[in-house]
Each structure stands twice: as C-alpha cells, then as structure tokens.
Amino acid sequence: MKTALIFPGQGCQKEGMGKDLYNLSPKAKELFDRADDFLGWKITDVMFNGTEEQLMETRNTQPSVFIYEVALAMAQDEIIPDVVAGHSLGEFAALVMAGAISLEDGLKLVLNRALIGQKASDEAPVKTGMGAVIGLSDEYVAKRIKEIWDETGEAIYFANHNGPGQVVITGTKKGVRMACKAFMAEGAKKAVPLAIGGSFHSPFMNEAKEELGAIINEVEFKTPRIPIYQCVDAKPHTNPDELRANLIEHITSSVLWTDMVNNMDADGVTHYYEVGTDDTLQKIVARMKPHATVGSLLHIPSYEGKIKDYSVVKE
Fold first, then answer.
1. Residues marked as catalytic
2. Based on the domain organization, do 105 and 232 belong to the same domain?
3. 203-216, pLDDT tens digit by residue?
4. Which residues are within 8 A (CB) of 79 and not within 5 positions of it... i.e. 6 or more apart?
C-alpha cells in the first residue's frame, strides 16, 4: 500500500483561500509569512481578503495556489506520502513537499513562470488560446488536430491529457476555435475554448522556456525524500538533474496526467489525497481508478470542518 499526495494546478484559486489554515496552524502561518517576506508584498492579503479580480492578476494567481498547497501539505503530519505528483503548476508544490527545492526557490520559479508566460502570450505573433475537449478518445483528437492543422495551417497541440476522454488543446486562437467546433459536430460531449489567453505547454512557449529555463538552472535541486512523478514523462524521479531538466521541458510539453495516474497505480499507489481547495483531481482519479481510496487532505482529522472545502461549501 502506497500513498500519494496530488497537487492541482491553476484554476483552484478561490477567494479567502488559506485564511482559515493560517489561523489554525502555527506551521502554516510560518510558511505564509515566509512567502510574504520573500515576495516583498503580502500575497496573503490578496489570498485572504482580496477580490476574485485581484486573485486573477498575473503576479497573484500562481503564487497563491502554490503557497496554499505547500502550507496545506506541510502543516500536517497525518498523511505521510510515499510519492507526490503535481498537475502543471502543482508540480512546483510537489517538488517543495518532497524536499527537492526550497519554499523560496519554488516561489521565485512560480512567480517568474507566471510573468514570463504572460509576456510570451502578450508578445506572440498570433493570438493563442486553449480549449477543453471531453468525450472523444485521445487518439481521435490527436488525428483530427493534425488534420485541421494540415488543412488550415493553424497550429494546434495537446496541452493536457487530464483523463481518458478529457483533454485540453492549445494553439492559435483561430485553430482552437475551429477544432472545438469540429469536435462538437463529431460527437464530443463538450468542446469549448477556455477563457485563457496564451498557448501554455506548447512550442509557442519556446522563448519563455529559454528565459525561465535560465532561472530554473540557477536554483539548487536536492535529492528528494520521495519520488516525484513529473508531468513531462509521467515517470517517478529522484535525480536532481533529471528533476531540473524535466521542469524546463515542462514549459513547452504536454501535461501527461492520465499516464501519471496509470503509472502511480501500476507502482502500487492505493491512496490518493488531493492537496487543494476543491476536488478537481479527485474526480479524475476516482473515475480512472475506482478501486483506489481517493480523498482530500482537507478532510484529515486536524483539518476536518476547520478548513474550507470549496467543492462542498459553496460561496
């Protein structure tokens, strides 16, 4: 029996996130305070008291999700993981939890990831975007995005493989829009462009990869206490050089979450605890692995009823 902590990515940011955790746990308070000190501004003010608009600002969103997840995981000692895995942005929190990088270095990388990614999107020669496609096989989507690209010249890639029949595509805004329209006509349950400007996890981020890669290369990576399943190849890693190289490749490569879950399962993981504000990853894992025990860190005894679960308590 093995236990995994799984860390979701951007999208799980919520107004008020972390305030109850800060007030509950001295260890969490220390981590939040360290984040404020390192950044030189109070990210906690935005998280605890800010509006949704403030939380969605480029410099706030990713650091808020990151520090919340790190604090939630590290302020408890009831669930001791054998492995960790993070979805996209969540990989940075997983690296800190496993002891591969420091909290401060993680924050530096996450903030730069947000700012550099936004700059790359703003300066792209064409408008780019992302789209969610549900209800078609990955193989069919792969075949059709290549065909649509060949027919129209509009570049389209896979950004995320989130689960069987659940993917995110990315590319030119026009290409994503055309692909989503085609997929709806071809039997998809859902195929919609997302309200995200930018083509993340694709070659459109090559310049961002160079700039952020240089910063990643400055960071000290240590041998982690436990393996980290990484997005770029879905495999468990403990070698610091591999962790670093994969984190750089992650900028322009698809998130292989489907394969990550399958590999964790094959390697004997039976218990999965999501480290986030809601149940985004739990739903995917439970659907893929109905035999597994899947839950949220929010419901361990020391957090139960004291830390808000946004998938249960509606605002």
1. 88, 201
2. yes
3. 999 999 999 999 99
4. 3, 5, 273, 297, 300
